[in-house]
Amino acid sequence: MAEEQLLNVARTDEERAELLRWMYATLRPEYGEKPLVARRAPMHELISTILSQRTTHQDEEAAYQELLTLGSWDEIIDAPTGAVAHAIRRSNYPESKAPRIQATLKAVREQRGGYDLDFLAGLPVKDAVKWLTDLPGVGIKTASLVLLFNYARPVFPVDTHVHRINTRVGTIPRMGEQAAHRALLKLLPPDPPFLYELHVNLLRHGQRVCIWGRPKCPACVLRERCDAHVIYGNNVPSFGEKPPKPEGKVPKAGDLFSAGGEG
Ligand code: SF4
């Protein structure tokens, strides 16, 4: 049985929403307030997010910078796909990402006559998400990052860190990252600064404490309300690891909330 299945503790939507607000408030003193400011231009965000899949931030940035040495977006579309793959070789899977990037750029140009995405700021959120996810190579995570980071639209990007922590803590039952976008968004306030800070602070927490391998639970500020910690104590298994079956019955949400904060 996968770890996530053991952590599927029954909760109402109100309990999940309250738990998310508690996580936001608990992570803030740990990682600080995060004002919502765009970190890079919209097209940079769009293409870099494609490059970032299964790639470190450092390699993603190096691949992006070398991609730009091929010239303008028009010139990148016209470049041999092998040359694009070579330019982005610091990113993982360059052979599959290169044609996707070229197809994405081409679709943006065909539909908009250029590469200005600012029209997304004026579309209803649903339509903006649809326009972006209809582009080849663009999924819900990429669309959400562009819309939240660049246009302060009320969407919530779910990356591997956000997904892992929410699964372990128990704000969502077992589900994939894509489905988690919908599940979490309906529990969260439509408040872009809140969504941005929660996303960024979960990312930090996932990189430093609630890591993919054995998480550092004794150092975790979320442990008092984390299903995984209540069930496994300080021996929460790695996210992909087949865990030992916990002894006794898996507790209900109310039991978990009163379980105390021992480390
Ligand atoms: S208590 Fe452990 S498993 Fe739970 S969120 Fe913290 S680090 Fe992750």
From TrEMBL:
SUPFAM superfamilies: DNA-glycosylase. Keywords: DNA damage, DNA repair, Endonuclease, Glycosidase, Hydrolase, Iron, Iron-sulfur, Metal-binding, Nuclease. InterPro entries: DNA_glycosylase (IPR011257), Endouclease-III_FeS-bd_BS (IPR004035), HhH-GPD_domain (IPR003265), HhH_base_excis_C (IPR023170). GO terms for molecular function: endonuclease activity; hydrolase activity, acting on glycosyl bonds; iron-sulfur cluster binding; metal ion binding. PROSITE patterns: ENDONUCLEASE_III_1. Residues 242-252 have a biased composition (Basic and acidic residues). Its cofactor is [4Fe-4S] cluster. Residues 51-208 form the HhH-GPD domain. It holds the Pfam family HhH-GPD. One of its GO terms (biological process) is base-excision repair. Residues 240-263 are annotated as: Disordered. Gene3D superfamilies: Helix-hairpin-Helix base-excision DNA repair enzymes (C-terminal) (1.10.1670.10), Hypothetical protein, domain 2 (1.10.340.30). Belongs to the Nth/MutY family. This is Endonuclease-3.
